[in-house]
Design a protein that fits this description.
- The complex is a heterodimer of chains A (117) and B (110).
- Helices cover 0% and strands 55% of the residues of chain A.
- Chain A has no helices and eleven strands.
- In chain A, the strands form two sheets. In chain A, strands 2, 4, 5, 6, 9, 10 and 11 form a seven-stranded mixed beta sheet that branches. Chain A has a four-stranded antiparallel beta sheet with strand order 1-3-8-7, with no helix packed on it.
- Chain A is globular and about 35 Å long.
- The mean pLDDT of chain A is 90.
- Chain B starts with a strand and ends with a strand.
- In chain B, the strands form two sheets. In chain B, strands 2, 4, 5, 9, 10 and 11 form a six-stranded mixed beta sheet that branches. A five-stranded antiparallel beta sheet of chain B has the order 1-3-8-7-6, with no helix packed on it.
- By secondary structure, chain B is mostly beta strands.
- In chain B, 35% of the residues are buried.
- Classes of the chains: A mainly beta (117), B mainly beta (110).
- Chains A and B meet through strand 5, strand 9 and strand 10 of A and strand 4, strand 5 and strand 9 of B.
């Protein structure tokens, strides 16, 4: 099983709403990632969790708040978003190892299509 | 800063043709290079991963090569089919993160 499951598939929210995106994997992976992808552009890294600790934050605005409650689950909490935050949000995971996560395949979920009105 | 470019940006071919997609990167200090496929509005499907010590990888009709010293990779698709129509992305893995290329939109017509 190489599945990364993201919910919901689609989300529409107003600028004053609070919502969360969820990502789950049961492959025993210890690294998990959030990416943002605008239309016709490549994905851009937002956050990396390695062994449930935040290891990379690509200077993402604080209205995006990641959380990794356990090794299988990754959340992205959204608050006071702007219309320009509308995008496809992709979650990925990869194996962790003593030699680091860098060498391993990243498996992606189907994404959450977010629209901010 | 790593920059990844893919050429061509778009490609349209008739069914059955063999084709080559190109990926170039500016910093050769990479751990690996991964090729992905993305259907419109969907997530990414990993096709092939080449470690920095490898020269090529094959999976079915797909063959990917890597020349790290020159900063280039190619994805060869044999006997293309309409189902191959998608955007193909290459991504290079440095110490910190995966950097994606600009993508090639492929259309294979029956």
């Amino acid at each position: 099983d190489t599945e990364v499951t993201q919910t919901p598939k689609h989300l529409v929210m107003g600028m004053t709403n609070k919502k969360s995106l969820k990502c789950e994997q049961h492959m025993g992976h210890r690294a998990m990632y959030w990416y943002k992808q605008k239309a016709k552009k490549p994905p851009e890294l937002m956050f990396v969790y390695s062994y449930e600790k935040l290891s990379i934050n690509e200077s993402v605005p604080s209205r995006f708040s990641p959380e990794c409650p356990n090794s299988s689950l990754l959340n992205l909490h959204l608050h006071a978003l702007q219309p320009e935050d509308s995008a496809l949000y992709l979650c990925a995971s990869s194996q962790g190892s003593s030699s680091g996560v860098a060498k391993n395949i990243q498996y992606f979920g189907a994404g959450t299509r977010l629209s901010v009105l | 800063k790593q920059e990844v470019t893919q050429i061509p940006a778009a490609l349209s071919v008739p069914e059955g043709e063999n084709l080559v997609l190109n990926c170039s990167f500016t910093d050769s200090a990479i751990y690996n290079l991964q090729w992905f496929r993305q259907d419109p509005g969907k997530g990414l499907t990993s096709l092939l991963l080449i470690q920095s010590s490898q020269r090529e990888q094959t999976s079915g009709r797909l063959n990917a090569s890597l020349d790290k010293s020159s900063g280039r990779s190619t994805l060869y698709i044999a006997a293309s089919q309409p189902g191959d129509s998608a955007t193909y992305l290459c991504a290079v893995r440095g110490f910190q993160k995966l950097v994606f290329g600009t993508g090639t939109r492929l259309l294979v017509s029956p």
